[in-house]
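thought: fold this chain, then report.
action: predict
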Amino acid sequence: MLSRKEKSLIKEIWERLTPVAEDIGSDALLRMFASYPGTKTYFSHLDISPGSAHLSSHGKKIVLAIAEGAKDISQLTVTLAPLQTLHAYQLRIDPTNFKLLSHCMLVTLACYLGEEFTPVAHAAMDKYLSAFAAVLSEKYR
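observation:
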């Protein structure tokens, strides 16, 4: 799946992005809501307008979860176990949305990192975010 070098690169990128987790997460969510309006359904009880506290808070949670998983990708299933249960059984999120958000996160990272988001970084991040989405979807099977 991911080489040692790719894992290191992913970990480094997320460590660097943690201080701006709210910005990255809220931007990715806004992209998802604009591109896939049906995903807003799960947030009807929150103010998800640009700059809102709810959007920033949830965006930060997402980025911090992704960054936490990146610390030890080999333990991703263990790290994400509580989120698997929450999203599958309590929130009942359509697992397709994890893939949609992963794509929007890639676009956000490309915009935020610019030339630092090299083809190698892009490919590694795509693999990681795909694995992240797959692990979150495991409880649905």
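thought: worth noting. The CA atoms of residues 47 and 64 lie 20 Å apart.
final: tokens above.
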